[in-house]
Structures are given as structure tokens and as C-alpha cells.
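re the bet — no i am not wrong, look at it urself. input seq straight from the record:
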Amino acid sequence: MSHFTHQHQSHPGSLHQNKNGEFHRGVTANQKATIRAFDKFYSMFPAFLDLFPDEDAFLEFAFWFVAATVVMVIIISRYVTIKPSSYI
């Protein structure tokens, strides 16, 4: 009996060839459902390049975000005081 005739278990991460001759990794139905759930979740949010099409747009956003944060901290610091707690 030849060792090529028996069916053997392959490693879960190994490549398999489908009917069309394309290679793919073995994916279970549970993994497919998880992948579809992640794809659906991520499709609800815009991609980074949708928000910032180039580097200048991102740098401009970062500048205004930091500037607004500094202004908010200055304004809030006039109304909020932090008192040291005394441990007796």
C-alpha cells in the first residue's frame, strides 16, 4: 500500500486548493461569520483616508485639535480648582 493513498490531516494554517485551482487557507464557518461581523462593523466607520485624504489635512486637524484642547484647558482651569487632600 502506497503512502500517497491514505487521507491525512493537514495543518489548520496550511494552504488548500479549491475546485477553481485557487489556493486558500482552511476557514471554518464560525471564522467566516466572525470575519463578516468585523467587516460589517468596520464598514460603519469612515476609513482614515476618507477623513484625511493627504498629509496636510491630517496635520491641519492635529494643529487645530491641540489648539482647541489648550484653549479648553485654560477656560476650564478658571472654574475648577484642585485642592490637596490632607491625610491625618
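see?? The two ends are 86 Å apart (CA to CA). told u. also Helices lie at 29-43, 48-51, 55-79. so pay up
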